[in-house]
Amino acid sequence: MKEIFKKYGTIIGLLIIIISFGILRPNTFLSLRNWSNILQQISLLAIISIGATVVMVIKEFDLSISSVASFAGIITAGLLVDGYSMYLVIPAVLGLSFIFGLINGFFVAKLNILSFITTLSTGTFLGGITYWYSGGSIIFSGIPREFLIWGQGEFLNLALVIWIMFLIVLLFWYIFNQTMLGRQLYSIGGNEKAARYSGIKVEKKKIIAFGLTAVLSALTGILLASRLGSAHPTAGGGYLLRAYATVFLGMTLFKQGEANVLGTMVGVLIMGVLANGLTILNVPNYFQDMLTGSIIIAALVFQGMSVKSN
Amino acid sequence: MKEIFKKYGTIIGLLIIIISFGILRPNTFLSLRNWSNILQQISLLAIISIGATVVMVIKEFDLSISSVASFAGIITAGLLVDGYSMYLVIPAVLGLSFIFGLINGFFVAKLNILSFITTLSTGTFLGGITYWYSGGSIIFSGIPREFLIWGQGEFLNLALVIWIMFLIVLLFWYIFNQTMLGRQLYSIGGNEKAARYSGIKVEKKKIIAFGLTAVLSALTGILLASRLGSAHPTAGGGYLLRAYATVFLGMTLFKQGEANVLGTMVGVLIMGVLANGLTILNVPNYFQDMLTGSIIIAALVFQGMSVKSN
Amino acid sequence: ESKEIAVLTPYLESVTTNTMIRAFEEKAEAEGWNVRVIDTKGDFNELANRYEDVIAQGVDAIVMGMGDPNQLRQQINKAVEEGIPVFGGDAGFIEGMKVNVTSNNYVLGAQNTSYLLNRIGSGKIVKLYHSAHPGVYQREVVFDAIVDSRDDIEVVAEHYVQVPGPIENAQQAMQSILLSNPDIDGVWAAWDEPAIGAELAIRQAGRDDIVVVGIDGNSQAIEMIAQGSSIKATVKQDFAAMGDILVEQIKSVFAGEELVDNILYAPADLITEDNAADFMD
Amino acid sequence: MTAKLLQINNLTKTFPGVKALDEVDFSLAKGEIRALVGENGAGKSTLIKILAGIYEKDSGKIIFENNELEINNPAQAKDLGLAFIHQDLNLIPYFDAVENIWLGYDYPRKGFKFAKKEMRNKVLELKEKLNFEFEIDKPVAELSTANQWLVAILKAFIMDAKLLVLDEPTAALTDKEIKELFINLKEIKKMGISIIYISHRLEEIFTIADSVTVLKNGKKVADRQLEEVNKNDLIKLMTGKAELVRFPARENREKSDKKILELQNLSGDAFSKINFSLYENEILGFFGLVGAGRTELMEAIFGLRDIKSGELKLKGQKIANKSPGYMIEKGIVLIPEERRTEGLVLNMGVAENISLPNLELMLKSNVLKNIDNQKVKKESKKLVEELSIKTPSLKQPVKYLSGGNQQKVVIAKWLYRNNSVFIFDEPTVGIDVGARTEVYSLINQLLAKQSGVIVVSSDILELIGICDRIAVMSNGSLTGILKKEEFSQDKILQLAYEEVR
Ligand SMILES: Nc1ncnc2c1ncn2[C@@H]1O[C@H](COP(=O)(O)OP(=O)(O)OP(=O)(O)O)[C@@H](O)[C@H]1O
Ligand SMILES: Nc1ncnc2c1ncn2[C@@H]1O[C@H](COP(=O)(O)OP(=O)(O)OP(=O)(O)O)[C@@H](O)[C@H]1O
Ligand SMILES: [Mg+2]
Ligand SMILES: [Mg+2]
Predict the structure, then answer these.
(1) Statement: residue C209 has pLDDT above 60
(2) Which regions span the lipid bilayer (chains A, B) (predicted)?
(3) Would the CB atoms of C220 and B141 count as touching at under 8 Å?
(4) Which among A105, C259, D23, D439 has most CB atoms closer than 10 A?
(5) Is residue D410 part of a domain?
(6) DSSP letter (8 states) at residue D165
């Protein structure tokens, strides 16, 4: 029993939250429509959180994720408005962001600069570029309709972003659990020295990790622009803390507290369900904050209590 | 030579920045008046950053610092408007914040919840309270004039906040370098288990650390309210990232990369001087971001290069 | 049975948004409606999420509290499909919405810019702005246009004000600007908070020859004007009127009437030393 | 002899303040087992870390299979066929043994997934071959230290190595496992694989090695075939001292009947119903097989673990085992088993580590609680000298000290106070012969101050050599306490293997 709480405490917390909302507003909250809403609402947070998970696996921070997302959204929108084809622009922006991530990784892995300050600085730099490119204001008029498909379209009755999220979750779950790269990243996070002594090219893998994080952040930014039909130079700002919150929440799941894709997804769901459910319950704004804070703490205390005996 | 760069690279970086601005705008930038401005401008950031340093010494995060600052500002302003004496209100708010910090510490130390998620949650909770208390709007009319002394008054030709900052820096430098508590906190940060085996009451000290962080955050919030003559429910929001940026910047100074008061102060100065100098140079906003990002990275790369050979 | 009205905003923490929404709440509650305010702290994706939630929940009307509707096209369309009317409160207007009640930001910008220029005649001014906010951006556009057309006015420094913490940020920037440009005559702020920051810096520097103007009619700014600070003018949007108009428009829609206008403007008053006392609570 | 596998010429390596290797020559034939010995800090680990591509050499040549080469990183060393078991265990805590052992190689695949089964089988096979016993499916963090070493050893055995380097692999192993290891090392030798073997247990070297190289202060002082030397010769080469008494005699050995520590039916998670008394001026040994529960018992006495039932008495007074801080105040201290993770703050300096548990005795003012830095310096300097800790300065971060010197720092932490009970958990693991004798002398000295000492050790000879009585534990129970006159290896082992439920 204890073991179950220890292992799945956060999931149990999530279930309790869902059940509570379900009892309070069965018709609205439990409706299919609402769940398809919830899934859609969490999808972008999920993607960027998985990005954050990648660097957290190697015990690093990437604070540039929100800047990358904003940058990608603005540049994509700008280039589309300039008339370039979306099939050219999207890969190009993802590629550019990947390179940006590699540079982050280079500073961290090769030059040994703390990732927190590295990515804060490169993020600030990128933010400057984004401002410069956009003049500080929203880009929206002239964005071609076909671009909006990604963020607003549907496939088999589910929003396309949900499918994209599923794909990313699956892909990264696979990378982390069934590929050498994934295992090596975990080994670096577990004991960098041991990984190096085992012959793993630690620096290279770290750099790749930062690259992947940046790509996922950029993808989030692009999808966000498509979802909102417009790009805002600080659109990604809201994701930074929330992404890490979900990763940390997820870290309390499974094993010894490492960042992991499934944990992150549970974290994302907890956040998404809370926001959705509290809105449906008509809870006043300030009270939502108090409740969100308390519910998360309560869930963790609950789990912590059962784990404590170690 | 290498040793010098290794040890004082960040300080050298700071000096280079100062000299560059000095050459570009000798009359303005190097004027006494401007330096008294800079010191005043950094004072609040310095105080909250030292708060962040305290928890970073024990390798924990406190993300509630900005919420505590906002909370303290609003409650202080609110109570003053209600007619309570400032000599009662300020200690009470600091005390309340201290207790809040102890609660953070309790969750982290006693219940083993990751500090990142604990303080994010408690911070969200406190944010809710702040909103509820203030109705989400600014509090200013009715704040007694005498309260404004703290943030706007002068003493011996220097702003009072500068003196307060000096006092705090000195006090915490002393605590960390000359007292048992400081040494014990560092040992907990270095190896919690070894600290415990050395008979240190690890939990208790951790809880105290969180308490101290909260007090300094609250002090920052109160001084900010006094300085602006008004309190805003999200006034502290801007400090979160900047405070940790300075701490991390400072961690590249001295020793093995632990957070430390002097390092943090150099970090604060770098940030403050950059913001001030670039504004004096009339550098456009977006370009300021790019420059700030690049200069910090350059300074660290520069130092990193010289350290690398280890 | 009482009507459910959801007010969604990304900017509740901004003083003006807050005042406007409160004014509306008061009027709407007097009608017996149930008003709920949802804030997403500047996050538009979250804003879109919350739109979806209230649409799924089937509220009777949605009020968009500031924010650019262009970013919420899809959600507005959804609301239309569900037959939920969407009203703008100091937001923008796009197809599908019923109406936007606002003060004309271009006019606000023109009002405070003209006041500033009239007062100083000619000279050097500082611009404090924030283009990311659409309404605030519109004021800037007007300011730029007017200043461009005047050869005797020079913008010697401009600062993009950081949010959150605009007062402190503007104050710090102003301190530096005062040192590098001691000969400025005026400060144009795109809203009141940076104007207050500028005033704090000017006061600290012991200057009294600089004219600062803002927009919004923030009560702290009005008090400062009344006390004879460097802030000489602000433009107060009449939020109470805005709330009234919004409530009237919603009532008409509930009654099944077609609305005639897409955009309705609430009046705005220029507040200076002469009339500041009238506007203090 | 047969062909040369490895030849090292004039190898030099300096660290800030330390010349760790000074023009060292070294050569090794195919199929040779070469022991590498020397005092703590002599440079043994540094030498092999250069071979492993972890440290960069300052100068010198490395010739492997007749090619001069540079080894720039561990991956390259691995590709050359060099396998290492380093002194500091290098495992990924949350990986299980299977994955730890495979790490560094491409895992076998089956379709889209890793062939977990194949990986597992390979490890099982290897484990069987070496006759090791431990759980391979648990995260290694949950294994005992001894078992973690077994994992590290298997990890080196999985590759087709040409050279196997073991840096003190037996420090944490039991006799049984050591025996198995040696059988396997001999097998390996037969396959033509060379071995470099580092150990402070000189008896082992005579069992396993063909030849020996002695380092002293970074210089090579001798290369010998083992037939040519005996133990005393080696000790002399290592320490420069003519003769060494292994177990220093104690002067005031009169017995006391004053009970200092008394346990009555003490039970905890891994031990039950423990009864014994520790007398003043007594050294009480604790022997047991790995996992017998000795460490847990001691940690419980020290306040680190909960007591379920039973009583603890100090000088006749009942006390609660609240916390280590409280026990230290009362005069009970523990010198823990794992120095790197439990004993030291690696980033802190020598003086800072030594003063850490004694800070309240080194204050300028009891109100301000400010540290008297002069006193800290003076007292730690005294202890550093007393224990002859080899360090360039009092400020040197202890992570840069050699393993043995680290252990001395851990001991030094507790010598400053006047304590009633000293508990040493495996105090001589990884310590050179000379230093070991010093530790024994130190333990003797402690008794002079009206205290009692408990020594937990897996080295029977050591216990027989220094203790007044030896308690033996098996499976969480105390199976017997032997008086000095009853000491014999057989008796002790018999008690240790006694079946208890
Ligand atoms: N990374 C390092 N930085 C600074 N000094 C070091 C470092 N590694 C080792 N040393 C120093 O080099 C010397 C040789 O250390 P080494 O670890 O090789 O000794 P050793 O012979 O393996 O000793 P032990 O038997 O105690 O393990 C010691 O004085 C040690 O303090
Ligand atoms: N952190 C831990 N996690 C899981 N099991 C543990 C842990 N620590 C100890 N154990 C187990 O508890 C039992 C008692 O271990 P303990 O360390 O007290 O034995 P010991 O007699 O001191 O032997 P050793 O020579 O291994 O130290 C063993 O089975 C050990 O594997
Ligand atoms: Mg060694
Ligand atoms: Mg043990």
Answers:
(1) yes
(2) 7-26, 38-58, 63-81, 87-107, 114-135, 155-176, 207-225, 261-280, 286-305
(3) yes
(4) A105
(5) yes
(6) E
The answer to whether residue D61 sits within a structural domain is yes
Considering the domain architecture, whether residues D109 and D232 belong to the same structural domain is answered as: yes
Give the closest-approach CA distance of A128 to chain B in angstroms. 4
Domain that holds residue B89: 2-308
The verdict on D296 and D201 lying in the same domain is no
The answer to whether residues D230 and D297 belong to one domain is no
D289 and D202: one domain? no
What's the CATH code of the domain at B39?
A: 1.10.3470
Alpha-carbon torsion angle B20, B26, B29, B32, nearest 10: 130
Q: Is residue D301 part of a domain?
A: yes
Number of domains in chain D: 2
Query: For residue D425, what are the domain limits?
Result: 279-306+322-496
pLDDT digit string (tens) for chain B, length 310 residues: 556 666 676 788 889 899 999 999 888 899 998 999 999 999 999 999 999 999 999 999 999 999 999 999 999 999 999 999 999 999 999 999 999 999 999 999 999 899 999 999 999 999 999 999 998 888 888 899 999 999 999 999 899 999 999 999 999 999 999 999 999 999 999 999 999 999 999 999 999 999 999 999 999 999 999 999 999 888 898 899 999 999 998 887 665 678 999 999 999 999 999 999 998 888 888 888 899 999 888 887 777 665 544 4
Q: How far is B183 from chain C (nearest CA, A)?
A: 35
Contacts 24+ apart (CB under 8 A), D206-212: D206/D231, D207/D182, D208/D33, D208/D35, D208/D182, D209/D33, D209/D34, D209/D35, D210/D32, D210/D33, D210/D34, D211/D32, D211/D33, D211/D34, D211/D35, D212/D34, D212/D35, D212/D36, D212/D37
Q: Are residues D351 and D229 in the same domain?
A: no
**D72-78 contact pairs (CB < 8 A, 24+):** D73/A196, D73/A199, D73/A201, D74/A196, D74/A197, D74/A198, D74/A199, D75/A199, D75/A200, D75/A201, D77/A199, D77/D51, D77/D52, D77/D53, D78/A198, D78/A199, D78/D104, D78/D159
D228 and D339 fall within a common domain: no
Alpha carbon nearest to ligand 2 atom 29, residue: D291
* ipTM of the complex in this document: 0.90
User: What is the tally of structural domains in chain A?
Assistant: 1
User: Measuring from atom 27 of ligand 2, which residue has the nearest CA?
Assistant: D295
Partner-chain residue, chosen from C12, C157, C165, that has the shortest CB–CB distance to B237: C165
Q: What's residue A309's pLDDT? A: 42
